[in-house]
Protein: Formate--tetrahydrofolate ligase
Organism: Streptococcus pantholopis
Amino acid sequence: MKSDIEIAQNTELSPITEIAEKVGLKFDDLDLYGPYKAKLSFDKIKAVKSQKTGKLVLVTAINPTPAGEGKSTVSIGLADALSKLGKKTMLALREPSLGPVMGIKGGAAGGGYAQVLPMEDINLHFTGDMHAITTANNALSALIDNHLQQGNELGIDQRRIIWKRVVDLNDRALRQVIVGLGSPVNGIPREDGFDITVASEIMAVLCLATDLKDLKKRLANIVIGYRHDRSPVYVRDLKVEGALALILKDAVKPNLVQTIYGTPALVHGGPFANIAHGCNSVLATETAMHLADYTVTEAGFGADLGAEKFLDIKTPNLPAAPDAVVIVATLRALKMHGGLAKDELDKEDTDAVKAGFANLKRHIENMRQYGLPVVVAINEFINDTAAEVAVLEKLCAEINVPAAAVSVWADGAAGGLALAKAVISAIEEQPAEYKRLYSDDDSLEDKITKIVTKIYGGKSVVFSSKAQSQLKQFARFGWDKLPVCMAKTQYSFSDNPSSLGVPKDFEITIRELVPKTGAGFIVALTGDVMTMPGLPKQPAALNMDVTEDGKALGLF
Amino acid sequence: MKSDIEIAQNTELSPITEIAEKVGLKFDDLDLYGPYKAKLSFDKIKAVKSQKTGKLVLVTAINPTPAGEGKSTVSIGLADALSKLGKKTMLALREPSLGPVMGIKGGAAGGGYAQVLPMEDINLHFTGDMHAITTANNALSALIDNHLQQGNELGIDQRRIIWKRVVDLNDRALRQVIVGLGSPVNGIPREDGFDITVASEIMAVLCLATDLKDLKKRLANIVIGYRHDRSPVYVRDLKVEGALALILKDAVKPNLVQTIYGTPALVHGGPFANIAHGCNSVLATETAMHLADYTVTEAGFGADLGAEKFLDIKTPNLPAAPDAVVIVATLRALKMHGGLAKDELDKEDTDAVKAGFANLKRHIENMRQYGLPVVVAINEFINDTAAEVAVLEKLCAEINVPAAAVSVWADGAAGGLALAKAVISAIEEQPAEYKRLYSDDDSLEDKITKIVTKIYGGKSVVFSSKAQSQLKQFARFGWDKLPVCMAKTQYSFSDNPSSLGVPKDFEITIRELVPKTGAGFIVALTGDVMTMPGLPKQPAALNMDVTEDGKALGLF
């Protein structure tokens, strides 16, 4: 069996200019980055805004399990199948972070015959977006420390600086550091830490900005810390939003690449799905919607986190809401939700499928709360049995949700045709009537409570004493009109990662709130959140290499 | 008077494919980065190696003073003038670091009508080379700390790790840090620090590598620290040279841009000129030599440091030595070397010119030691008088060195014609007979002594007790066959920055040696060397901005 990189390197790519033509993009609309990558020009991004929008399909999933669900692969395969059916289709996907690539994963651009290419570039520096975000983030840090050093005119409390530095690497030794040591000319000693770049608020800002002006406004609104009187200090107080926007001026343009099948894909932005909203950029999704008849996009984690954030945080910044939601499930994962252990998944167990279906059913109901048609994608694995598939299809039929088996990993576009047809039918038969879960005017407390009770199925919310005082403080600062971004485990509807299936009668404790006033949301932390991964004992980097003529090796 | 960025933005650029055609490069030889930047393909870089080489002109300078000498501007103007005379000409220049751009300088790509374009891109992310180097450097740091955390199989002494992290920013607070704090899962606490990216040994490695294989070999040879028994630990012991080379696989390809006049310019690599050798990449210079009849390149700082390193460190990696050396001087700077203070430079003073000429004369003699023809470029400033110019021209004539006035900042290519003609004549009249100052087999002590006595004109060298024990240790490790890279003040031939003109009878003290076994040289430190600049009270970043349609503002 071929590895992902072997399949990728055996694919003959089309020049990106030819791919662009499929959706009416001309040579002058592109800034080429080599023959197979391009950024869209500002002129084109602006020009298409007046065009009508095509249909938008959001791909999400059940709560992920160690068995894996293959959401990106299904997204890519679905888009390819829509292309194969003659629909003018585009993908809008997140771009991967280099840190995990060097650590465990070795690559993240789909899999098998459903990949975006050139996977080596996408997994390494791509068009430099991550580096621009890293640079903007760390330029802000340097400017903050320089402000302290040069007299601290703004009166920033050095103990209450919340802006951290970042690197696009898995580097646990940088999680907690002390900077400014050695001598008075080396600045003010203080505690600091590094997150991975995708956890930077600037990533979230870039992904929610609708144009350069909006980007600059959001950058200006970032809170970097507090004064001794506890009043917030914004980037606009430092007057450096212009410089940060300048550093990001190219990174904000969506990147065009292609799938193995030749579907045009905008791969752009990739914020964390816990302390941020976990979707590719608004500009990529919006531009794809204006260019294509069908746009397939994806949200991070399961539908309780990723799709909720897509619909409550990202969608208000888009020209239109999704027309349909695809929920990806695998029989293996459903059997885990149904009570089986990881080493029991290879044997047929229709009862476990039935029990695990509860998890999928709750996600289906949740998406229907938003007024959206739902389609289930059953991503096939080698040990799935016909009896298990039949049980799952019957359960879906009972609640009137179309379901289609998918084999795009092995078969490419052909393996996604049933799903593509089901999606087209769902959209044509039932127009979406998007309703947001909460309104901006709801208090932060109400917003969180609605998410916990209506989406997670929890009983109630407990706010720590810290969170309670923050609720008052944030209302005073005028931050209570912002949406909420929940930072919760992806493995369960509850805040207990081992509570699979559909947990009942649980409370969610909000430990702390974090203002991301530039991105434009308030993060609600339900537990410890890791914002800087570490490397494993045998990092993927040990297998990586490059040949004398520049061919990448060891990206899986 | 127009600012550099105004002149740049008022210039209509040619598509880079048209610029490439001037030196026989075709569309397929390029990886485009937007319409005005490209990287050369590996295939083309390899293919031209068998072509004969054109003439190489090295531009260097007298010891710099606060009055400024304009070396990059003269290099660009000289190349443009050679183009204007019908010579097939290329430039090979360093690429600027973002840190100083955000700090004081606001930009570094020539000036006036002698600039490389697009200056905004070159001064910001360009084609991502700096970011790739930053990433490779910091990936190595993360892999070292991970090795410590995962059991430290190699027995690295955590107190003797010499590999530091980098950022491409001026960030004094990162000069000395403690990493690994907070918890056992956050790694081993230890002292560390950040240099600016251009000070990374990986920058020097990239700039001296002759191909990807050589790059990987040099990366493998980097010393990252020592074991408890003081034996060195190399990157090859960690087995990550393949991953680092993979991260650098595109960064190693030279970048093609254009001057205002339309001369093709390879702008690639930019190592520090103190703790590294301060020249653009070997691959850029070599490729230009194969493509053009005349290649103009530049070395950092004054000729005592930059040209010495070009000739003793870089040249052995090139297919041929320079055919001529241009030494840039200004009357203002000569008057400072002649004893005037900065506020006295606007008045005519031919005696100060005469006195200051001694500095220029010593550099001329030094370059002649290498067997190379020399031409003096007098870079004109507004307050220069005819009498002063006449004195300088007469002094040059007395020692039989051609001199030409240059006004390329104000006049572009036309302002460099006299210099271009003088350079062509010098090359045609006197074939270069390059002799290196020392041989690889000289001991490190002898190499340093030759540089100090023959180039600086010093009396002798004093080695600190630390340096003395290092000399023995380095010989034991087999590092004594490497060339020496002097880290000395650029402002004086001596190690005292305020000793202008031609200091006599001075000793140079070597405080410490630093192994850069990957780059392939041993750094000899004569004093404290700053490898991480700080930001000023009013950083250039405060003036930077970007318009709604993506136009950069505030890069001077």
About this structure: DSSP finds 20 helices and 26 strands in chain A.
